[in-house]
Write a structure and sequence with these properties.
single chain, 682 residues, alpha/beta, FAD/NAD(P)-binding domain, D-Amino Acid Oxidase, Chain A, domain 2, TIM Barrel, 3 domains, seven-stranded mixed β-sheet, 24 helices, 28 strands
Length: 682
Amino acid sequence: MRIAVIGGGPGGLYFSVLARRFGAADEITVWERNAPGETFGFGVVLSDKVLGAVERADPVVASELRPMLAEWDDIDVHYRGTTYTAGGNRLAAMSRAGLLTALRRRCSQLGVPVRSGIEVDDVDALAAEYDLVVAADGVNSLTRQRYAETFRPTVHTGKTRYIWLSTTLELDAFTFYVVDTPGGALQVHAYPTSPHTSTLICELSENAWRAAGFAEAAASHQEAGESDEWSIALLADLCKDILGGHKLYGNNSRWLRFPTVRCETWRHRNVVLVGDAAHTAHFSIGSGTKLAMDDAASLAQCLNGQPIAEEALAAYEAERRPAVLSLQRAARASGEWFENVDKYLHQEPQQFAVNLLTRSRRVPYASLRRRDPEFLLGAERWFAAVAGGEVSRPMLQPLALGGLELVNRVVVSPEEVFPSRGGVPDDLQLVCLGGAALGGAGLVLTGPVSVSAGTGAPGGAGLHTAEQAAGWRRVVDFVHAHSPAKIGVRLGCYGTDAPSPDVLPRVFADAAARAADGFDLLELDCAHGGLLSALLSSSDGERDGRPLRDRLRGPLEVFGALRDVWPSERPVSVRLAPASGGDGSGALAEIANEFAARGAAAVHVSVGPHSDPDAFTDLIRNQAVRNKECAVIAAGRIAASDVDTIVLAGRADLCVVDQPTVDSPWFSPRGTPGRSAPKEQS
């Protein structure tokens, strides 16, 4: 097989090395547009996992890279005059130039020619001459553009501006700084590249970037390869306390906005994409070089194991696509966190540090504990002091919800409708809700409960007759008698035979008056399929054209009627869901604010199975709800193991989890005799 490789970056060179070592090709030639030794950028991050894979694939390359590595264990978060350090991260970096030099040298040893200074502008001709063309030509791939109808790429451009720089400042950890500027936070991502140099990435929101005057420099004409020296000088002044007299240096350094590239396929006949040509993931998780090198190794192995190139390319894409998609999801969460960093600046430094470390949703609580137990213990102590509890896991800290004291942050709320006769709750509700209370939940919520005849889910329970109220009182009394848990009722109007709008508030108020005989909390259901949800959006789930204030009028009237009859010392929450057919985040935040302003003690956000359960609550908790006394409840397939992270990072105050069991190791409710402390989970 004869292989042509377009692009002499890490992906193209590493593929060439491995393909030759594995015997996958008789001839391999690399075309690189830049001259030898000409490279842009500075340091590249390589995890222990990547380095281990390189060592297994080619010990010669690994032996060249090891002496050039700057390794570190810690992540330092500098914020509001404090520094919090989290260890156990085991990362390394090196200069991009050093990596490319080592890979070029290895190509030469293996007889792989690298033709530098040649731009491949006729991919068709190359594909006709060679058996396989591997396109590793970067984020602006001409190959991807040439066969766009096959690859069907999409490019999503990030909101923030960033610039890649170097400095002689010596660092021994990955370091994150927040620097105040007139228009918002300047974020500095910095890490060691060698014993005497470090890489800095400076990032600003669009508003902060313009307010600082960088737009003027970006508009000025610069020759190809030149750096934006005016911006570099201004950044050096803004970061003078960080740099301590050290200088900043550029290398074709200009302001950029990060492009996230996705392709529906990476193959076109005998042409295949690898690395940034096929996909990108935000730089904040240090993934670009890793993805390219992982692609290269996978493709080389598939070509070695499959005698037919077409089958090898299919195997390569099938193997790599799930891993890439997973990393892109994490990178998107991480990138969006940094895009919205101004919204987290109200957090206390310790919580801010935890939030930053767990922003990608890929660092579970148990991992934090394994990496640095002292850092986590400090965060637990801080959270316990704020919550007024004993030092323990955040999920077990108490919470005052209005006048209601909850023993922990765990909520159980069944989604299914339990069949009942005449809407009267029976043993099924008793077993389900009572079991959740015995299992350790701080708050149990009923499933959907209808407020009038004909408005419930088929066979579901109601609260519009005395018999139904008595059935619910039996469930409530059991929970109160046998556990410290509190219990709430979710009231809604779900059927097609709904009351007229003018009587709807009274119907809800009547049900609320019955619920006041025992229930600790009342929840107004404005989510997923109920009448109030329909009032907020049109029948197909898309927001209609009416102003939000008009759509809110009916639900807010119902909420006011409930508050009038419900005991003032007991909380009322509102259950919401983002609109389908889009993220619905803007409208959801406005709706949450309206209810919070009228006294809602909590906003319960329920999302679908394919959404990050805490993404919308994070938005509401940290970016939207102006009434910080209003708690936020996250719901949507949250594992009990994730509650600690979500709560400690400040993305929600409570979490709805799958129903725990009496023997669950996740819970140790106070006041329950004979229950051991939770075991550490792996």
